[in-house]
Fold this sequence. Notes:
This protein has strands at residues 4-7, 10-13, 18-24, 32-39, 46-51, 59-60, 68-73, 78-83, 92-100, 106-108, 112-117. It is mainly beta. Strands 2, 4, 5, 6, 9, 10 and 11 form a seven-stranded mixed sheet that branches. The protein has a four-stranded antiparallel sheet with strand order 1-3-8-7, with no helix packed on it. A hairpin with a 4-residue loop joins strand 7 (68-73) and strand 8 (78-83). It starts with a strand and ends with a strand.
Amino acid sequence: QVQLVESGGGLVQAGGSLRLSCAASGRTFSSYAMGWFRQAPGKEREFVATISRSGGSPRYADSVKGRFTISRDNAKNTVYLQMNSLKPEDTAVYYCNAEHVVTTRKYWGQGTQVTVSS
Length: 118
């Protein structure tokens, strides 16, 4: 069982930056690939970024490539999403996701709201 708690969301002007954090419980954090997803009002949840268990092989949605950076600190059981050059269309609830590399079981956090004003 993994519990994920996101933090760092808020209100920011277009062009600004935010850093999201996701703290995971448990002692097997390095057994999980970690990711960020988001869901805007009236839309489906969509992929934002993912990172492997070792911290390599980051992948990004085309819409955030070059602006967002995903990273992780396995010693702190935490994954981050640095978001720069934010746009109003980035407004959404951002969810942290953990997927076990062997069982593929998935866990989700409760989400953190990001609002970008124009």
